[in-house]
Design brief:
single chain; Rossmann fold; globular
Length: 228
């Protein structure tokens, strides 16, 4: 009898864990998948593309294919004229600067440096998305990453009232892809909790940053022209 109770408890626990990890993933994909694009010509034209950060190397001397594919996708989207500016958003610590690394690689690919903005406080996907709206003033933009990541970013954006689409960089091989898929299940659970229950905010906001050149506007009354 005790063995049966133990096995039943184990089965119920397994089902609960599976449901806990599967339902958030299903919800995110169902909402966000229609807003993800694999063909550059199908991507709605937006002023800004946000490249979501990841480490350039999985270990010393071995490049991260997720990173390489995101950089190539950002180059393709920009050169096709689907975005005018890029925000490279990622982690920045004492010995590690994802945004600067992304910028340098994009410049080497021919993207003008004055069209690239560094968001060094994009520690998490939530931070990158919320800061694009709150700090960089973009209510409509394109996220650039792999499909699994874009879907989560779009889900977060939708809960913050942002109009976001995704351009999907190619995914990677089975081994690295499987690891990412496992991590993503937990990341999606956390994302749902963050935006529905915890109402979590970015770790850092800061002063607003204007994207593009300042535009002169006529004053409402007399006086000199103002800029925004």
């Amino acid at each position: 009898m005790r063995r049966r109770i133990f096995l039943l408890s184990l089965l119920i626990t397994g089902l609960l864990v599976t449901a806990t990890l599967t339902l958030p993933s299903w919800w995110i994909s169902r909402m966000a998948a229609p807003r993800c694009f694999t063909e550059v010509d199908a991507v709605p034209q937006r002023k800004v593309g946000v490249v979501l950060g990841t480490s350039k190397y999985v270990r010393p001397g071995r490049e991260n294919h997720h990173y390489r594919n995101r950089i190539a996708a950002a180059e393709k989207l920009f050169k096709a004229g689907r975005v005018e500016y890029l925000i490279v958003s990622g982690d920045h610590s004492k010995n590690y600067d994802e945004p600067a690394t992304m910028r340098d690689d994009l410049v080497r690919l021919g993207i003008p440096v004055d069209r690239i903005y560094l968001d060094r406080a994009g520690v998490r996907t939530l931070d990158s998305i919320v800061r694009a709206g709150e700090i960089y003033g973009q209510r409509e933009f394109t996220v650039i990453s792999q499909r699994f990541h874009n879907e989560r970013a779009i889900f977060i954006a939708s809960r913050r009232g942002l109009d976001v689409v995704g351009y999907d960089a190619p995914d990677v091989g089975f081994v690295h892809g499987m690891r990412a898929a496992i991590r993503e299940r937990f990341a999606r659970l956390i994302a749902v909790l963050d935006v529905t229950i915890l109402q979590r905010q970015p770790g850092k906001l800061g002063e607003p940053v204007s994207i593009g050149p300042a535009v002169a506007v006529a004053p409402r009354t007399g006086g000199s022209a103002a800029t925004r």
